[in-house]
Amino acid sequence: RYTWVTGKEPLTYYDMNLSAQDHQTFFTCDTDFLRPSDTVMQKAWRERNPPARIKAAYQALELNNDCATAYVLLAEEEATTIVDAERLFKQALKAGETIYRRSQQCQHQSPQHEAQLRRDTNVLVYIKRRLAMCARKLGRIREAVKIMRDLMKEFPPLTMLNIHENLLESLLELQAYADVQAVLAKYDDISLPKSAAICYTAALLKTRTVSDKFSPETASRRGLSTAEINAVEAIHRAVEFNPHVPKYLLEMKSLILPPEHILKRGDSEAIAYAFFHLQHWKRIEGALNLLQCTWEGTFRMIPYPLEKGHLFYPYPSCTETADRELLPTFHHVSVYPKKELPFFIHFTAGLCSSTAMIALLTHQFPEIMGVFAKAVSMISRTCVEYL
User: Fold this and answer.
1) Are 203 and 235 in contact (CB under 8 A)?
2) CA pair distance 374, 361, nearest whole angstrom
3) Which one, of 131, 185, 118, lies nearest residue 157 by Cα?
4) At the topology level of CATH, where does 1-161 sit?
5) Mind telling me which InterPro entries this protein's record contains (predicted)?
């Protein structure tokens, strides 16, 4: 639909190729040959041409009306509205639950049956998460929250799907800030990997307590209160993790449709976060004002050179290259802000280098440098007399 309206391709070939690999990883296994419909779907996921993939999905349904992955493909690639996609995902859920129960009963019979259960579990979780996202898009937020909570409770090992980040966004839409804090308390742990959603949501909650009364002029006169210091430190922490987000939140840079895959700490993650969370920052009075006043101070706190980190590992230099593969060509990719050295340091370094060079030349070529020095002094004296 984005292409119909704008005439631009929102997803790059690299991004879509990663999706194709994900589908093959999640939705296929070595036992596909035991079920004819799964054999057809295995070929469908490898097919590059979208019409051919859709045709293969219908062929799989003719062989087995309970082929869950066929409904998933149709929901993602044939449906043109969220309502149509949700209808197909509900059919996929009904079929997926039936297949999952069968696999559970046979899981201990052989390694092949265990692999089949893992695949059927992946399919079921994927369908439920997609249904939660459909409910969120259609405004049924409490229903979406319930599905996500049930998924996290029933399948805790599958944190790679980042369902907790979808849950954070839905709870923010409900303005259930106590529940948001409870989720953060579980996932914003030193031993767990961070993300822009976690770091910036934590900053938003701390900012919320002080932003409505914050004034730069007042703060400069009386100093920052403890709550304001905590909010500023949380913003600095978030900006150090992903420095690209503030320009999108402050609308200093245009948003685009997020890619299907994001790179942690990269521009792609910043776009995805701002795309879904900008409204939550706007809803809290003064939050964006506090962000604008404080976010650039982060780069004065990070040690120099940039190979050193402060609160996180040093920012990886390879993110720019990967983001250029993930983001469309019409988007100007953000790069890590360079830390500028003061003019005095540049001036001093230049002066010392010049002095050292003159001393070296004088030592090596004393006669030539003597003539050069006399010529310079005569020119200087002439200029002074002329003035």
Assistant:
1) yes
2) 15
3) 118
4) 1.25.40
5) ST7, TPR-like_helical_dom_sf
